Amino acid sequence: MANTTKHTSTSKTSGSCSTNEITRFTPKVDAIELSTAKQWAIAASASSEYTTTRYSANQVIGAPDTGLITGGDQQEIDKAWAEARSKINESNTLTLTYSEPVYIKDIVARETWNAGAISKVEVMKDGVFVTVYTKTDAGETGGTMSGVQVGKVSDTKISLTHALDYLSNKIRLTVGNNANEYNEIDAVQLISAPVFADILNKIYEDSGYAGNTPDDDKTTVEQLSVVVKGVNYYLEDRYQAAIKAKTDFTNPTDSAAQAIMTDEVTTLVTEQSANLSSLYYGQTFFNDDISDMDTSLATNMSFMFYYNEAFNQDIGNWNVGKVVNMNRIFSGAAIFNQDISDWDVSKVVDMSSMFSCTTIFNQNIGDWDVGKVVNMNSMFTNTVTFNRNIGNWNVGKVTDMSAMFYSAESFNQDIGDWDVSKVVNMSSIFNRATAFNQDIGNWNVNSVVDMGWMFSNATAFNQNIGRWNVDEVTNMNAMFHYAITFNQDIGGWNIGNVTNTSLMFYQAKVFNQDIGNWNVSKVTNMSYMFFGAHVFNQDIGSWDVSKVTDMRGVFFNATAFNQDIGGWNVDKVENMSSMFSSAIVFNQNISNWNVNEVTNMRGMFYCAKAFNQDIGDWDVGKVTDMSYMLSNATAFNQDIGSWNVGEVTDMSWMFFGITAFNQNIGDWNVSKVTDMNWMFSQAKTFNQDIGNWDVSKVTDVSYMFSDATVFNQNIGNWNVGEVTDMWHMLSYTDTFNQDIGNWDVSKVADMEEMLYYAKAFNQDIGNWNIKNLEAANNMLNYTAFSTENYDLLLAGWSDVNVTDNEGIKTGVSFGANNTKYTNATARQALLDKNWTITDNGLLNDSNNNGVEDVFVGNNAKNTIDKSGHREAITLHGLGDNDTLIGSNHADTLYGGAGDDTLTGNAGADTFVYSYQNAGHDIIKDFNIGEGDKINLSYLMDGYQEDKVLSDYLTLLSNSKNQAVLHISANGNSNVAVVITNIDDVDGLSNDLNSDATRNDSTAITLENIAYSEELLNNLVDNGYIVLI
């Protein structure tokens, strides 16, 4: 008969109101599997992302895939999401969708850069996002954040104070702040509360105890059975009311009937009282005195106190003599620390995770009879205080010790006499057991197959294990990862069955033993094997690596390694990314390697500062990623011009900081490359002709030549039509001064500091189509950009979209701080678009003779009369209806917006129109004999000689027989003749007067010129109207 504990509560029944005893049953019947549902996102979007491919929101979909290790140094990996460069100084949101709506309890984010940056969690409820968690400088509300490791890859866990009481499958995270740093997230896992909560909620609401009217159908026997089976998971808050639910057992109204109901329930409990599995599962606040519980029939106590974070009662007298399964019995019972040394555990077979995460448990259990235990997997994982003598345990039947002392940070007992002869799995057994340093050199590990992560982060361990027989081991992945004091002779090991040595000596900073005779012939994965093994420099040149497919990072930061491995057979290797990254002294001949299966050489020689070997004959035809490949390989200067790079898509940072390199790579086929950002940045000697490269698929050239101080090659014919980012592209290029005026930059959004400190640059880029330009801060600051070219830029950019009839972006910031301008009209057109322009001001003495010769209005209605000026002048009326009167010299007059009246006076005057909506101007004294001209070239940027002139210009007469020139800047013949003011032109045909859709942008009356049919062609043919 199961033991019960009684509590007095008030129970309401129909027709009466009385106080009755309600039985609260301690043992649980027929354990219900309450595994917490864990999901990875199936869809993702973000308020901003670095690009739509690299560091995009889509990278967060699914499980972590950056390859980074939790607790390892944070790294920038483009398989994680990061915000846009322009948004790093503000908060961003990441919205994630999951397949199944659940009762959300926890969110776990794999943060690969700047962990702990999540400040808010919102959950979709009824179509609206509701805030469930916030973190500010003042503290946290709605839950707690844990797992953050500053500067490390972290699984950041946000645990809500209570599981949500509504279903949802969509969350929104607010990430970042006003700090100038990126935030990167690889994946986000959603963890639900046990699904059993849904059942109890329903019964509770139907019972009437939720403040509603009881359901007419009442709770059934079957429902009550379910409640009894699970009620002990939810003894707190509203769930306790579930066992008070009305039943149809006879709808009792008296104490006798109540007793009948209680007997029914008791019978259910008694049937399976031997199974105490998950009895107090997840009861966060449960700490009742249950010392007198009758456990004599119990055989299964697995998960019994699982995450009972408050439980710490004396249960040392319990009779557990029949228990077989103690898997996770105290797992997560954080403060449990009672003396259970007298327990009879002689029948227990499974002790896996028994004390995992019981962070203060440290009781003497050294006399336990564990002779039948087979599974000790994770038994003391995260029992950070435990350090008792268990050296006499009989573990002769144990087959699984994986993670047994994982993060048991205090444990350092002599277990050297243990009989581990049947153990098959020792993976992570001492992982993060930072105090452990005992002699286990005599262990019989003959049966062990898996030693992966065995001594990872066992920072104190340095014992002689060289006599171990590891013949059966197949996995040594990360075996000595961060074992920073280990340096024992293991050169005699036979690792002939091992297939995985990845991360094996990762950051094993003092290891330097002769392992040159190892048989690695079955190894397929050597990735990061000697990463950070700072002193390792042994001869491993005779290794048979013929089956290895993954060598990424194998010598990454192996700062002492410089052995001849040129004879290695790397025929099957597919990944060599970061292979010699930061191997600063390595400089061996590997020219004969057959790398024709390699697809990834990202960062292969990054910071390999001594490497300078001839690898020009390598067949790199399958490589798709060469980003960072030779970055900061400061000595490298070999001929690689014949490489077949036709499959490469990423060359970003490839030659960054490669200060010696200056080889001819002009014949490379880069037609598939999409990313060239930082490619030659700080390549201070590179100056080769790459003008014929096909860069038509490249989208990012930011920082491409930044600080490439001698580069000055003709790249004017490059097709940059797909480029969107030219940020800092040619900044600090001291000598670059090539004609790039014909580039198609129509998709570029960012030209910020593009030519910043390009000290020699002075080219005409006025023809650039900048319709998508959003940022050009400091673009031409500290260049040699002349006033002439600046005026051309202002004129060209201000009318850039006449042809395709699209407006340029508003609110753009632009800088040319060393350069003065004279074309005030074009500059004003940009200011009218809310541009912010930083330059060196108006050049009003263009002849540098002390005489002002450029005059500008104030964008209102002006009269500027310079008829008596002693030299040629330039007049800019800017906005509104202006009157401009020139001198008796060869003047230039810009009417600007509005209906202007222009008088050139004597001299060969030029009337310039660069403003799309220039109004209806009158030129008072247009004089062919004096050489006057009308320059329409800026306005009619779509016109070519093969075009039909009448599609663009029409010359008509008004009532005074004066010639009136009508201009259609976009060349649309349907609106080629458009009349601004019908009343002024009464000599037109009825057809023209009846066209109500015409709305001419510009019309010019030549007041002193008589109209004739041949006049327009004469003016154009003789150069008095300039079209191109």
Structure description:
The chain is mostly beta strands and 1028 residues long. Among the domains are: 4-33 and 196-271, no CATH class; 38-192, Sandwich (Jelly Rolls), CATH 2.60.120; 846-1026, no CATH class. Helices cover 7% and strands 15% of the residues. It is built from seven helices and 29 strands. The protein has helices spanning 196-207, 221-230, 255-271, 787-798, 824-831, 990-993, 1015-1021; strands spanning 4-13, 16-25, 38-40, 43-46, 81-82, 92-102, 104-113, 118-125, 128-136, 139-141, 143-146, 154-160, 168-175, 184-192, 813-816, 836-839, 854-856, 863-865, 874-876, 883-885, 892-894, 901-903, 910-912, 919-923, 933-935, 953-957, 962-967, 1002-1010, 1025-1026. A seven-stranded mixed beta sheet has the order 18-20-22-24-28-27-26, with no helix packed on it. Strands 3, 5, 7, 11, 12 and 14 form a six-stranded antiparallel beta sheet that branches. Strands 4-6-13-8-9-10 form a six-stranded antiparallel beta sheet, with no helix packed on it. Helix 5 links the parallel strand 15 (813-816) and strand 16. Helix 1 packs across helix 2 (221-230) and helix 4 (787-798) packs across helix 5 (824-831). The model is unreliable at 1-36, 195-272, 801-805 and 973-1000 (pLDDT under 50).
Break the fold down into its secondary structure elements and pairings:
Elements (H helix, E strand, L loop, with lengths): L3 E10 L2 E10 L12 E3 L2 E4 L34 E2 L9 E11 L1 E10 L4 E8 L2 E9 L2 E3 L1 E4 L7 E7 L7 E8 L8 E9 L3 H12 L13 H10 L24 H17 L515 H12 L14 E4 L7 H8 L4 E4 L14 E3 L6 E3 L8 E3 L6 E3 L6 E3 L6 E3 L6 E3 L6 E5 L9 E3 L17 E5 L4 E6 L22 H4 L8 E9 L4 H7 L3 E2 L2
Parallel strand pairs: 15-16, 17-19, 18-20, 19-21, 20-22, 21-23, 22-24, 23-25, 24-28, 25-29
Antiparallel strand pairs: 1-2, 3-14, 4-6, 5-14, 6-13, 7-12, 7-14, 8-9, 8-13, 9-10, 11-12, 26-27, 27-28
